[in-house]
Every structure is written in C-alpha cells, then in structure tokens.
Amino acid sequence: MKWMAILSSLVCALATGCVSDNWNDAGGGTFAVQKKQRQEEVSSDNWNDAGGGTLAGTKWRLAAWSVSSLDPARFSITADFDESCISGTSVINRYSGSYTVTDDGAFSVGDHYLTALAGSADATRAEMLYSGLLRQARKYVVSGATLTLKDEGNHDILVFQAR
C-alpha cells in the first residue's frame, strides 16, 4: 500500500509541477524529485509585517486555526512553499498545489492534490477543515516567525509557526 501512496504523491507532484523536499508518507525515507534543497532561514529582513515579501523557501507548521472544535496541535499540518507551489502534510495525507501572492499581501491557492490514505474520523475531519480554510485564504501576513492566513473579511483563519 505504501508504494501506492508514493506513486500517488509523484503523480500529483508532476501534475501540478510542484515537488516537495521530503515526500515521506510512511516514515520510510526521503523521496526527492528535481528539487534543490533550500537552506533559507526565516528572517525579519525578508518580510513586510503588513503582507508582501516572499514565501518561497519557507516551511511552516500549523499552530492555530479559526475552528474551535478541534485543536490543530493534535495533528501534523505543515505548509512548505517554493516559488509557485505549496506542499506539506494535511493530517493524514500529503498535498501539493499552486499558490500565488502579490506584494500587497494577497494570497490564493489553486487546485491542490492529496495522496489517498485513510485515517480516523477526527483526522479526516481535521484534514477537510484545513483544506477548506486554505482555499478560503485571501491574504497573508508574516510577522517574525509567524505566518497568518486571512479570509476575505480579513479574519485570521490559519496561523503557522516557522519550522
């Protein structure tokens, strides 16, 4: 079954043109495809606290979200950015897709793809909530080691910490 998850990850990565640094679905090593490793650190010199700046080369872990019924700390949710792709873990599965940002802090994600692993009811619910909130994100703000994604009404919906 693990080979199917890896194959699914590869197909999704190739379909979107996005590739993660470390596609490790079941703890069995690293699966890297045509991507240089980045050794960039999050630095306040690279960011504009009102939005803008670059997300490329940064890695984040979800710390909070606007859903009060589930604690995101119970789950592994990450977001890794390269020049035009976002990828990471979304509780059970790996995801990959395109994103766009502008200098004034506008943010949006395109279609993104998930591997096809199953999980518990809570994990599945958390994964669906994360995916839905990510699609609602319209603005981003980076302040120090915190990335906040905001919805159309400028409400904080996803808060990440640098990793």
Can you offer a commentary on this structure?
The protein is of the alpha+beta class and 163 residues long. The protein has one domain (2-32, 42-162): Lipocalin (Beta Barrel). Helices cover 19% and strands 31% of the residues. Strand 7 (146-150) and strand 8 form a beta hairpin. The two termini are 29 Å apart.
How much helical structure, as a percent, in the residues?
Answer: 10-25%
- Helix vs. strand class: alpha+beta
Instruction: Give the topology string: H per helix, E per strand.
Output: HEEEEEHEEE
- Rounded to an integer in angstroms, the radius of gyration calculated over CA atoms is 15 Å
Proportion in β-strands: 25-35%
Task: List the strand order in the largest sheet.
Answer: 5-4-3-2-1-8-7-6
Oligomer: single chain
Secondary structure tally: strands: 8
Low-confidence stretches: 1-16, 19-49
Number of helical runs?
A: 2
Largest sheet entry: 8 strands, antiparallel
Report the principal-axis shape.
Answer: globular
Number of structurally distinct domains: 1
End-to-end CA span: 29 Å
> What's the pLDDT, averaged over the residues?
77
Itemize the secondary structure elements and their pairings:
Blueprint: H1 2-16, E1 59-65, E2 78-81, E3 85-90, E4 93-101, E5 107-114, H2 121-136, E6 139-143, E7 146-150, E8 156-162
Antiparallel strand pairs: 1-2, 1-8, 2-3, 3-4, 4-5, 6-7, 7-8
